[in-house]
Structure formats: C-alpha cells, structure tokens
Write a structure and sequence with these properties.
heterodimer; A: 319 residues; mainly alpha; MetI-like fold; 78% helix; B: 617 residues; alpha/beta; Rossmann fold; 3 domains; six-stranded mixed β-sheet; 19 helices; 31% helix
C-alpha cells in the first residue's frame, strides 16, 4: 500500500511536468501579455516599457522562461499577478477554499440523489418510478448549467426573493448568522451543479446496478433466503459502486470546467472566476497557476479514485 | 416409497418474450424420496436449470410465471407468501450453482457469506455463527479453515470455492439440496473430489439431492433415479440403471450414444466416429475405425517441437522487479505426422493451451524450436511468419467469442482468403460456399450473422474459416469442450471426416479424457508445464505408467452405473501452480521407454508417497 502510494506519486511528477510544459508553451504562443496595455498608454515612454519587459524577461525564448518559471515554482514562488498586484499563491489560496466547498458539496449532493434513485430504479426496471427517474435524468443533463442557473436566479431571487443571487465573501455577520448566510448564498450554485451531475450519475448507477443484479452471486444471496432489501444493500450496491467511483473521478475535470461557468453566473469568488478574469486581463502568471492547480486536482482525484477502488474491491492489490 | 420430500407435478414455467408467454418447462412431474438423489439430465436449453430455479421460486418476478404444483414435505410452495418462501430458501432447500468463480460475492469474505445464512435462519449471534462456520468449512474439508474465515473468494481456487458454496448450502441442514451443474466448470480430479464430498455429506446429513447436469458420466456416478429432459419435457424417468441399460425414448438413446465412454476403445488403434442416432426412430448406425490417415514414419513430420519453453514473469514492487516466474511450458518436445492427431491433455494450468499458442507463435516462447515442414517458425521474421500461418490454423474453445458479431459468416470465412491474397472477392464467394458445404452447412447461410447460429453451427463456421487457407496443421484448443454432448459428437465426427479427406494434422488440446480417447492417435499428458507421458493412445490409456496419468484416468466419471461401486480414493489435493521463485532452475528430466513410442518421465519421490497436503510451490 505504502509502496503503491509512493510509486503513484512518483509517476505523477513527470505527468505534471509535461502538463506544465504544454500549458506554458500554449500560453506563451497566445497573443498578448500583461504589458500590452502599456504599449497603447501614451504616458509610458517606450524606454521604460522596454526596461520593464527586460526586467520580467518577457522577450526571452519560451524555454528559458519556462525553466525560470519552473525554478521559481520549485522554490515556492508562484509569480506575481500584474492585474491584482499581489502574489499569485496568496490570490489562489483565497479562492481555492470557496471552489472546493461549492464543487465538493455539489458532488455530495449529486451522489446523495443518484445513489438511492439509481439503485431503486434498477431494482424495478421499467416500472413507473424507473421511467420517471429516467425522464428527469434525461432532462437534467440536457439542460446546461448556465441555463438552469439563470432560471434559478429568476425564480428564487427575483420572483420569490428567497435567496441572494450574488455570492459574497464579505458577509457582515458573526457566529451562527454567518454560517446561515454562507449556506443561503451557496444553495443555488451547489444545487445547479449538483442536479446536473446527479442526472448523469443516476443513469450510470442504474446501469451499473442492472449489470450486477443478474450476476450469479446475487442469485446465491437470494437462494440463501435473504430479503430483497438485504440482497440489494449488502450484495448489489457495493459491487455496483466500484465502476461508479471510476466515473466520478474521471468526471472531475469536467466538473471543475463546469464549475467555472457556474461560478461566473453566481459571481462565486472561486478559482474559476479568477481564471476568467485573469484571461480577460492577460494576467499570464495567474492563468498559468490556476490551470496548473486544476491539473494537480485532477491527478489527485484520480489517485483518490484508485485508492477507493482498492478499498471497495478486495481483488485489487496495490503493487 | 416413503412419502416424498419433494413432489413436483405438472410444473410449467413460462417466460414473457415480447409480450407472449413462452413455456420453457412443459408439464414436468417427479418425486424425490428422503435421502434419495435424483438427476435431471439434458442439454442446454432443455429447461433443467429453470426447473431448479422454479422449485426455489427464483425465476425473475414479473417476466415469468410458474404453474402446477411443487410440494415440499406435503406443503405447497407455489402459493406460499414471499416472506414464508424466504424462510424455505437456504433453510429447508439449499442450492449450489455451476460457476464457483461467479457465485460468491467478490467483495465479502467467505466467512461472512456463510455466517449470513446462519444468523438469518438459525438466529445465531455473530460469534456463534463464526464458530459454526469454521466447523462447516472443516466439514467440507477446507484446509486451515479457521484462518481462511476472513479471506475473500478470489483467494480460493474453483474447487475450494465450490466447497465454500456447499458449506453455505449445508449451513442450515436443509432437507433438499439442489445442485445445478456443480462440477461442470471444474477439472476432472477436482470434480471427483466434489462428487465424493456431496455423496459423503448427503449420507451424514440425511439430505435428498436434486442433481442437475448434462454429463451422463456424473449421472451414472451419483444418481439413484434420473429424469431425462428434452425441450422442456421429461422424456424419460426411471431408476438410473434402467435408463442406462434399457433406454426407451429415442432421445435418451441418442444422448447415450453420443457420450464417449472411457475404456470403450480397447482393441482399437485408430480414432472412431460417434454413432449417429436418428432422433425420431432411435435407430443408430455402427461406426467403424477411421481409415489409416497417418503418414508413414519415413516421411518428415508436419510439426517437430523440441525443447519448447515459455515462461511468464511476475513483476512487483517499487521498481517492478521479477518476483517469480510461471513456468507455463518447460522443455516440451513432440512431433506430429501429417494426418495424425496428437492430444495434449491435462488440467487447468498445466500449460497445454500455452503450448498450442507457442507453437502458433501467438505467444513468444523463451527457447526451443518449432519446425513446421522443416522450417523453424520461431526464427521467422514477422512478414514470413504471417505467410506461414496459412499452414497452421487454430480453432478456439468458445465459438461465441471467436466470431466477430458484426461480420457476416461469409465475410468471416473469406477474410483469410483475401488477406492472404489467395482469392479475389468473387472467387472467395465460391470458395466460401464450398467450405460451408464441406462443414455441413448450407451455402446460402453466408449472408447471415453469427448470432443466428447455434453453438455447434458456429464451431463449424470456425472450422470452415480455419480450413479456408488449406492448412496442414490445426491447433484445436478445447474446441469441443463448450458444446453439448450430441453437438460435440457431431463436430468431432466432422473433424475426423475432414482429417480423412484432407490429411490434416491435429494438435488436439483437451481436458476431456473420454473425448481424447476417441479421437487421437497419440496422447501427451501434461503436468505443471511438462509432458510426463507420451505415446500411442492405446498404450497410454491401456497401460498408463506415470502416477499423474493414472490419477487423471481414475477421476473420469464413467457413464456406467454398474461400475459405481468401485470406490475410488479421492485426495484433497489442489491443482498445483507452476509459479516458481525467480532463481528456480528446472531439474533435468529423464524418460523411460515403456514400449515403442511410449515414453514416461521418471518421477521423483513426491509421487511415491501419496501427498496429503498440496505442496506450496
């Protein structure tokens, strides 16, 4: 187990290096850099501009800049945000917890809906419940989050005025009240993202359970005289979860991608909205850092999925 | 007869297929007396498994219905409410299934799975159930039962898992045990152990047994009475001796004639066709030996294998170092004449399939030489190898999996012709028609897809595909093992006929001793990657020398109830694994010639004392 973990972390290093190289090159090839606006600003003399460019080494070859970035990164220096005028690492640290909170809760919500609904629907295939669940799931993943998000805002914030539609990080309250306000403003983004994921997970859980239900050991369990409920929970569910875990982990990049859109709609101050504003203001160090954080999260979730896999399935041995 | 434990009358089970109720079991009636063993025998699709599931009421609810009457000790089961039925299942009637590999839940420990039934029906506490489970595991002779309680099913071999299933079934001392093909997926020596175990436990526990099987040998071995099922109906019911001695129904006769009987080939040197029985009249022809197809010894053999060795490395650890080697094939040598059948026999893991694949170079062997018409296949470059593959073709075990479901049969057979440039598309079409005719199918079947054919027909298609390039050698890897008895007989008859016509050489890989006896000229017995005995079929079967050959022959169930009383010694041995430490150096083996062409490996100490516990490799 320990050797497995060490080996997996060692394997992650070259892949993260390759990812960073590709990201850096693509960003360098993209037109525009943080000093572009200086070129059109008549107050900045050309020699100052040139001096600044030389100071930050922007005109050096891509590889030289990449290795400079890498060396700095290895020492814990994430660079400097030109737009926000603070260090990139503190900027990201401000934003990451919000994103993890929203994405994490929405995933929990998605699983809390998908597991019971998917399992129940699969034990009664083609029943009324199954057909309704299938239809709703289909509707759910056909509607993009930016649409349902706006619909929710229109309904709950504007007509009913129950929930705030702008997510604020500076709530002026303390104690329980603060938690309550945090929760209230997080409900909509979490629900929108969670329902969207729940729709596709439900269909996946359903088919995974259907695959397991017809296996021999389920018949063995029934032949033992166990009740349907016990058969489903003890013998079917855990086996059906094994492929679902892989799916959830592989969905993570898409979930973070989807979160960018949702964060933008609800003005959630997470790293998704940071990425978008950084792209708009040509803030390359921030774009680089945020995309790299996404890459690390994806690698991390894959590792977690593999560990969970081994925990759920005793046949997997970590070598 | 004492009042029966189980009495089934006029049982009809139907499944809903596209809105229509289609009966699968049609009005079956039989009774099982206390302590009696009744066998239900039939081929696939005859409804025998559905009969078993109907007794347990385990057919899918909603899409199936069970009619008639099933009485357990006089109590009607079909009208029982579901909660009471659950009390019967696992408690009064228990069941074991065919596939030990899939009938245990992979994510729960075997101890938990057995204890579950004890806690449910006998109301034991967890610790009591654990103690009882260990007692049960000992009863089914699982070594070191106590330490294996917390292990998961994947750590057990097929035979051991079937023992676990039996322990689970016996947990609540059922009155009736339903065994649905419990030994079909097991090796012969393990099958013999499990059959013996069921017999012993039945006596100890005073159970009745309903034994479902397709194997007439097993029926003769175990059943007091037999029900022969065909197409959902019981065509013949009676004491087992009567059914074997005086079968009245034509179907029973054809079934019995298709069963190869070990030891029935004494006095014959060449292979023999199976008799063909008319299903309507029950009349059969009497087959004779095939004509002499083997090329004279003066001719160069088609295939000469010498010193063939294939090993697989097991890697593990941080840097993936070699932690062990599977010595799948170890220094194997044999030769094969044109028109000859050499059978490679042995149990799972003995390396017989790997030998076949190494000869075809589908797996790269480590060393040795494989001469095909004098040319070393192992030294060829890829391009020449592809060309030479025309001369050697392979037929696999599973006819369902070895045909591409999206490719019509004609295209599948024509493909080797076209890729080898042997025919143009229009010529190929004619050739396909001719090949289909040659394997007993109709030329206009070429446009159909594999799912439209039965298992036997598919295997014929695979044979036609192999024949398309006119090979000299065919490697038949368990090619008839997955087929029903009567279909098996037909496919074997076809293979023998093709050998006579085309002088084919067969490397016939099989675990079925009775079939091997029927079809082969020579036999090689493999054990842990090595050939332990090789020689003419008559010599090896008539005068087996190596202890392993003897053990293998003794384990084969003989379809003759009169010989049942010959009690056979059954050991508790597991099949050993050819996995060795990385520094293992295989010993140099010596062979002794028993009679001309019949050689046996000189065996060591380990065979002299009957090993009680499987030696850890």
């Amino acid at each position: 187990m320990a050797t497995y973990l060490i080996r997996r972390l060692l394997i992650a290093i070259p892949s993260l290096l390759a990812i960073s190289l590709i990201l850096f090159t693509v960003l360098a090839l993209a037109p525009g850099d943080p000093f572009e606006e200086l070129a059109t600003n008549p107050n900045v003399p050309p020699e100052v501009r040139a001096a600044l460019r030389a100071k930050f080494g922007i005109d050096d070859p891509v590889m030289v800049r990449y290795f400079r970035w890498l060396a700095a990164m290895a020492q814990g220096d994430w660079g400097f945000s030109f737009a926000s005028r603070i260090n990139v690492d503190s900027l990201i640290l401000q934003r990451v917890p919000t994103t993890l909170f929203v994405v994490g809760s929405s995933q929990l919500l998605a699983l809390a809906i998908a597991l019971p609904v998917g399992i129940y629907a699969a034990t009664r295939p083609y029943s009324l419940f199954d057909q309704i669940a299938n239809t709703l799931a289909f509707v759910g993943f056909s509607l993009p989050t930016f649409f349902t998000g706006l619909l929710f805002i229109l309904l709950f914030s504007i007509y009913l005025d129950w929930l705030p539609f702008v997510y604020r990080s500076d709530i002026a309250a303390t104690g329980w009240r603060w938690y309550w306000e945090m929760l209230r403003q997080a409900i909509m983004p979490i629900t929108v993202l969670g329902l969207f994921q729940a729709a596709s997970y439900t269909r996946y859980v359903r088919s995974a359970v259907l695959d397991v239900v017809r296996l021999d050991y389920v018949t063995t369990a029934r032949a033992k005289g166990l009740s349907e409920q016990k058969v489903t929970i003890r013998h079917v569910a855990r086996n059906a979860l094994i492929p679902v875990v892989t799916l959830v982990a592989l969905q993570m990049p898409a979930v973070f991608g989807g979160a960018i859109v949702t964060e933008q709609i609800f003005r959630v101050p997470g790293i998704g909205s940071l990425l978008i504003s950084a792209i708009l203001s040509n803030d390359t160090p921030v774009v680089m850092a945020v995309t790299f954080v996404f890459a690390c999260l994806v690698v991390l979730f894959n590792l977690i999925a593999d560990l969970l896999y081994g925990w759920l399935d005793p046949r997997i041995s970590f070598r | 007869m004492a009042s029966p434990i189980l009495s089934v009358s006029n049982l009809t089970t139907s499944f809903r297929v596209e809105g229509l109720w289609r009966p699968v079991v049609k009005g079956i009636s039989f009774e099982i007396a206390p302590k009696e063993t009744v066998a239900v025998v039939g081929e696939s699709g005859s409804g025998k498994s559905v009969t078993a599931l109907s007794i347990m009421r385990l057919t899918p609810p909603g899409s199936s219905k069970i009619e008639g009457s099933i009485k357990l000790s006089g109590k009607e089961l079909l009208t029982l409410p579901e909660p009471e039925m659950r009390h019967i299942r696992g408690n009064e009637v228990a069941m074991i299934f065919q596939e030990p590999m899939t009938s245990l839940n992979p994510v729960l420990t075997i101890g938990f799975q057995i204890a579950e039934a004890l806690i449910l029906h006998r109301g034991l506490s967890r610790s009591e159930a654990e103690a009882e489970t260990i007692r049960l595991l000992e009863k089914v002779r699982i070594p070191a039962a106590k330490s294996r309680f917390h292990e998961y099913p994947h750590r057990f071999s097929g035979g051991m898992r079937q023992r676990v299933m039996i322990a689970m079934a016996l947990a609540c001392k059922p009155k009736l045990l339903i065994a649905d093909e419990p030994t079909t997926a097991l090796d012969v020596t393990i099958q013999a152990q499990i059959l013996e175990l069921i017999k012993v436990l039945q006596e100890e526990e005073d159970m009745s047994v309903l034994f479902i099987t397709h194997d007439m040998g097993v029926v003769a071995e175990i059943a007091d009475r037999t029900v022969v099922m065909y197409n959902g109906q019981a065509v013949e019911t009676g004491p087992t001796e009567d059914i074997f001695a005086r079968p009245t129904h034509p179907y029973t006769r054809s079934l019995l004639s298709a069963v190869p009987k070990l030891g029935s080939m004494g006095g014959h040197t060449r292979p023999m066709r199976f008799p063909v029985v008319d299903r309507a009249t029950g009349l059969s022809d009497v087959p004779t030996e095939t004509s002499d197809t083997v090329a004279p010894a003066s001719e160069r053999p088609v295939l000469e294998v010498s010193g063939l060795t294939t090993r697989f490395e097991i890697r593990a650890g941080l840097l993936g170092g070699v932690k062990g080697r599977v010595h799948a094939v170890e220094n194997v040598s044999f030769s094969l004449q044109s028109g000859e059948t050499l059978a490679l026999v042995g149990e799972s893991g003995c390396g017989k399939s790997t030998t076949g694949r190494s000869v075809m170079r589908l797996i790269e062997p480590l060393s040795g030489s494989v001469l095909l018409d004098g040319e070393d296949v192992l030294k060829l470059d890829q391009r020449t190898l592809r060309d030479r593959r025309k001369r050697m073709q392979m037929i696999f075990q599973d006819p369902f999996a070895s045909l591409n479901p999206r490719m019509n049969v004609g295209a599948a057979i024509a493909e080797p012709l076209i890729i080898n440039g042997l025919a143009t598309r229009s010529q190929a079409r004619e050739k396909v028609a001719e090949l289909l005719r040659r394997v007993g199918l109709l030329p206009d079947m070429a446009s159909r897809f594999p799912h439209e054919f039965s298992g036997g027909q598919r295997q014929r298609i695979c044979i036609a595909r192999a024949l398309a390039v006119e090979p000299r050698l065919i490697v038949a890897d368990e090619s008839v093992s997955a087929l029903d008895v009567s279909v098996k007989a037909q496919v074997i008859n076809l293979m023998l006929e093709l050998q006579e016509r085309m002088k084919l050489a067969y490397l016939f890989i099989s675990h079925d001793m009775a079939v091997v006896e029927r079809v082969s000229h020579r036999v090689a017995v493999m054990y842990l990657g090595e050939i332990v005995e090789i020689g003419p079929r008559e010599a090896v079967f008539g005068n087996p020398q190596h202890p392993y050959t003897k053990r293998l022959l003794a384990a084969v169930p003989v379809p003759d109830p009169a010989r049942r009383l010959e009690k056979r010694p059954v050991s508790n041995d597991e099949i050993k694994s050819p996995l060795r430490a990385p520094d293992y150096v295989p010993p140099v083996r010596q062979f002794r010639e028993v009679s001309p062409g019949h050689a046996v490996m000189i065996w060591g100490q380990e065979w002299e004392t009957q090993p009680a516990i499987a030696k850890v490799a």
